[in-house]
Each structure stands twice: as structure tokens, then as C-alpha cells.
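Residues pack. One example:


***
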Amino acid sequence: MPILAAALLPFVLSVSLAASFAAKAAEPVKIVVFGDSLVAGYGLAASEAFPAVLQKMLTEKGHAVTITNAGVSGDTASGGLARLDWSVPDGTQGVILELGANDMLRGTDPAVTKDALEKIINRLKERGIAVLLAGMLAAPNLGPDYTARFNAIYPDLAREHGLMLYPFFLDGVAGNTTLNLSDGLHPTAEGVRRIATAILPTVEKFVASLAPAR
């Protein structure tokens, strides 16, 4: 090997390694938003759906993320469990789990909802995928017993499985006629922006917790 080439070799290797590490550091965190019509973007353009809005907000704050919309309108927790394996691809690092609203609207036994959510959580944990649990609250007209049992699902699961919890996905939007479509259930584009803005600090912490795995 010529003397000059030999002298330059350590420099070339260091530059190559630095470039490799920089490229790895720039790889986006892969997140799937797994839920129902509240995240699927019911009645809205794809760019107005929660996952797209959240990704835009995170990107603007300097986070390298790729967020996939795995929301299906009408899905229950049990329905989500049935499609979990093909809805969350290999390589996913984190899932924002938002399910249960349709269970509540149908008056499903909270024990059934909790069991399905717990099975989803366990399957994701087995795959090494972190979970941010987005909570739901029962409508008060369902009665105090049902409300108490349903509302306990999310904090109980978060505590039992050591999950990050956002207590109420529709916080500040539920019941506000100006932020919901005419059906009174699904957020408008502005409603989605309010939801994304409110949950953003929690999601930023979630993204930060995933960074060492990159």
C-alpha cells in the first residue's frame, strides 16, 4: 500500500464511521396509530386525520418520525385485536393505542374491552413494541356503575403494564359542538388539531423513550 494511502486510511475510516452513525441517528422513529374512526379521519381528508397532523407537529418540532395511520372506523377493542398482527408491521417501534370508544357506545361489558386491550398490549410487548395508551371516558348517561368500570380500564392497564398514558383522547373536544362534525361524535379538522396539540407533549416523551432503540 502506498505511504500516502496508508496515512489517509484512518481518516477515511473515521469519516465513513461518522457518516454511518449520522445516518443511523437520522432514521425516523416508526410509530403506528392503532385505533378507530377517531384516528382514521372519519369525514376528513387524509391530511386532516390525527396521524398526519401529529406527524406534522412533531416534524416541526424537530423530531424524526414516521407515523402510520392504522385506524379503522367502527373498530372495537376486540376488532383491533383480530387485525393487530397485519396492521402493525415489523420494524414498528411504538404504537399509540386508541380503542374502546365503540365498545362504550355499544355498552360492551368493560371486562371484555379490558381483556381485548390487554391482549393487544401483551402481543405488542412480546414483539418489543412500546405502547402509549390513549384513554377514553364513558358517556355519563350509561350510569354510574358502567362509567366507573369503563373509566378504570385505561389507568389500570397503564399501571399494570407500566405504560405511558394519555388519560382522555378527546379531552377538550368531546361535547364541543364547534369541534365536532354534525354527528356529535367525530372531531372536525380543527378538533383533530386540538387533540394533537393537547397530546403532543406526551407523544414527545414517548418518542424520546424510543430513541435508544434506534
